[in-house]
Design brief:
- Two copies of one chain form a homodimer.
- The first copy, chain A, is an alpha/beta fold.
- Helices cover 45% and strands 16% of the residues of chain A.
- Chain A has two domains: 70 residues, Arc Repressor Mutant, subunit A; 113 residues, NAD(P)-binding Rossmann-like Domain (Rossmann fold).
- A seven-stranded mixed beta sheet of chain A has the order 3-4-2-1-5-6-7.
- The termini of chain A are far apart.
- At the A-B interface, helix 1, helix 5, helix 6, strand 6 and helix 9 of A face helix 1, helix 5, helix 6, strand 6 and helix 9 of B.
- Chain A binds a DNA duplex through helix 3.
Chain lengths: 210, 210
DNA sequence: GGGGGATTGTTAAAGATTTAACATCCTTGT
DNA sequence: ACAAGGATGTTAAATCTTTAACAATCCCCC
């Protein structure tokens, strides 16, 4: 995979959307799709679709379009989804538990293989098939498989501490659901998902129009 | 509130982060903060902080900095958070239930006032204090309060249909957790949160460095 | 086998966002 | 009262992203 240039974050997000549409198209037995069709289905412009794909190579045929299955496979490979990924979750509260059971992860190749918490009350109880384990066992589990991806669903106050321990254990990609800014060393990828902030965006835009 | 120009989406997201830091600072009894301090705490540049604020007015004192409480109040007002907002959730699956119980919403002024589902099995059971009601009752509930904000936590296949009904009922801001692109008419604000896509971003970036 | 229509890949232009630079203004100390 | 230091607000430059335009290519039909 030859990525000579820095790929915009937004492009990566759109690739996901494209891939979902392509999978649908393939399942419907459609043999070619145009950038226009992809664009319409995903809410972007056709130029955007072609530009996004151009970062990675040439996947279509001029005058014709793209083969859904082929392009789907390419995109999945670009995204690193040509394999399954084990994922651990820290924090067995409501959010952590819901994420652990969320079907959407498995559908895209992510397997929740462990849930950890510091609350002794919770240790031992199960979420779905998975038993909640004490945080101290994280390192062992992470290095055993190994696991590279983790989700943080703990209170804001302990997020930085938890993230540090995850990194020390060997986790290299982290999604942080705690509404706080945490830092990670070079080489570790961090993404923050702030649920309340999403609602705040809505109230801001609603306020704008009045 | 005089917003003469179009405000970047990213700016809105950062305001949330600033406000959280400012609240902390105020609680600690700090009397002034600089753009540099805000920047450091939220992971942006000081210039960015000042630029973001400049869209809305002048809130600081040259040579001094900002008063945390004052700036916090301004930002909350800008975001439309100088009041509480009722919110309804459609879809009482695991994700919907977790969101309904998520403490982070209430802390930022969002009250979940209703949960709706089409599954007859679920109707009548409770999530926390709130009883799951059939989708048909949505319109009535929304217009009674009225409710302007809604969260979609239903399968991708029914998301568009649900969103249409929400809009018809009077909802004007929607967060969509279903991994599918849905469309809304002019005047309705839509935000998509794709949880699997967040993990995919991580795998992409991890793949990049090898 | 050649022309018309269609669609990609790519280059250039436009637009938006971020960063940097600096003039302005405030506080403090002498 | 005034100078020095420091932080904002604002303008300009740089960077990044999106949109538009078009040449290159392919398929289909006659």
């Amino acid at each position: 995979m030859f990525k000579k240039f820095k790929i915009p974050e937004a492009t990566v997000g759109r690739l996901t959307a494209y891939s979902r549409f392509l999978k649908e198209a393939e399942e419907k037995g459609i043999s070619t799709v145009s950038s226009q069709q992809i664009a319409k289905a995903t809410g972007v412009t056709p130029a955007q679709v072609r530009k996004d794909l151009a970062y990675f190579g040439e996947f279509g045929t001029r005058g014709v379009g793209y083969n859904p299955r082929e392009l789907y496979n390419y995109i999945m490979k670009i995204l690193g989804l040509d394999r399954r990924w084990p994922v651990i979750i820290i924090g067995a509260g409501r959010l952590g538990a819901a994420l652990a059971m969320y079907k959407g992860f498995a559908e895209r190749g992510f397997d929740i293989v462990g849930i950890f918490d510091i609350d002794p009350e919770k240790i031992g109880s199960k979420i779905g098939e998975i038993e909640i384990r004490p945080l101290e066992e994280l390192k062992e589990k992470v290095q055993e498989l190994p696991v590279k991806l983790g989700i943080v669903a703990v209170p804001a106050a302990s997020a930085q501490q938890v993230v540090d321990y995850m990194v020390e254990s060997g986790i290299r990609g982290i999604i942080n659901f705690a509404p706080v800014n945490v830092s990670v060393p070079e080489g570790v990828v961090l993404r923050r998902v702030d649920l309340a902030s999403q609602l705040e965006y809505l109230t801001f835009r609603l306020g704008e129009s009045r």
